[in-house]
Design a protein that fits this description.
Blueprint (H helix, E strand, L loop, with lengths): L17 E12 L8 E6 L10 E3 L5 E8 L8 E7 L11 E5 L5 E4 L2 E8 L2 E3 L19
């Protein structure tokens, strides 16, 4: 018997944890009107964003972010942001940042951690964010 004879029963020592994750919801103004064209960005616990982490609301105010791939974080909170970036087409609203605890992954097996489907709805307040005001937010000299 050689050391290679028992290789079939050895545990695999390679692979990458991966999962299917989604977050969806709707964005409304404080008056309850569904808002189109609102940018929604999910930031992972490492702090970076990618193209797969950004979407815009449809005419019915709904959005959906689907992520399929390496997703092994187990941080208790995620951050998602809704920002009005359409230049006043639907009025002007202040951005809103929400931290939420993702639902547990279900149906995982081996390196596949499973699926987690989440819902986050936003109610935006009318106005302009201070850092985006047209006058720069500074004081003017009366003289």
């Amino acid at each position: 018997m050689t050391s290679c004879d028992d290789i079939v029963s050895a545990a695999a020592e390679y692979g990458t944890p991966h999962a299917d994750f989604s977050v969806s919801g709707k964005v409304v103004g404080e008056e309850g009107r569904l808002l189109k064209g609102i940018r929604v960005v999910l930031t992972n616990p490492g702090g970076y964003q990618s193209a797969a982490d950004t979407t815009y609301t449809a005419s019915d105010g709904k959005y959906m972010l689907d992520y399929h791939g390496i997703f092994p974080f187990h941080d208790p909170t995620l951050t998602i942001e809704a920002a009005d970036v359409d230049g006043g087409e639907n009025g002007q609203y202040k951005k809103k940042v929400v931290k939420f605890a993702p639902k547990p992954f279900n149906g995982g097996d081996g390196w596949y951690e499973g699926e987690s489907h989440n819902t986050v709805d936003f109610k935006l307040t009318a106005g302009v964010d201070e850092d985006e005001s047209e006058d720069g937010g500074g004081e003017t000299d009366p003289d």
